[in-house]
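Request: Not sure, any thoughts?
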Amino acid sequence: MNASPSPAVPDSVTLVTADVDAARAFYADLLGWTYTDSADGTAALAGGQPAAELRVGDGPARWWTTFAVDDADVVRDAAARGGARVDGDDIHDPFGGAFRVRVGSPVGVPGPGRPCWYEYMTTVPGDVERFYADTLALRATVPPGAPDDSYALLISGGRPVAGRLALPAPLDTLLPTGWLVYFAVADPDGAAEQAQRHGGRLLVPPRDVATGRVAALADPTGAVFTVIRPAAGPA
């Protein structure tokens, strides 16, 4: 009998890129990060709190979201049954996304310059919802008052921990499918301008959405991320 995954929570992010030095300089300027190095890579801090990990890796640069889970083996087994490619703690889903699992309670603390939200971008929302319900026990629900089901909240343990966006045109040609991390900033417009001055690219100009004011960017190594001033107020 297959065990069912317990609810998972997004916990941290890791940038895997062939050019860590370029990424360090870019995010230090953009998000005020400072760094400590270890044998495993580079830890980024914002306001003295962990913000991200940076590691050298081959292939296209990518931000990885890590989920805190109770039993990684159960998640890996469920993911494999759902058609994912499993490589240790790295899981590549069948729809172009990827994530990591870590056993334990979440340790990430949202704040300025740190991850504050996560969303899955997709053109096959139904398939994605079924996979992540079966794999990470994330249940999709459309927010009250939403005009349609293009956006859904992903619920874990009775509370929203992430979102799922059905990419409309032309976003489906601008943003990659998969998990997208949102970093909290006080001024998304200023961050978008600063990112471009330091070698980044503006993919989606700053705009107001239900969750706040956002802009989608790519860093100089090609990794895509979003900055946000949450709707509740400045980050």
Q: What stands out?
A: The chain has a mean pLDDT of 93. The chain has one domain: 9-230.
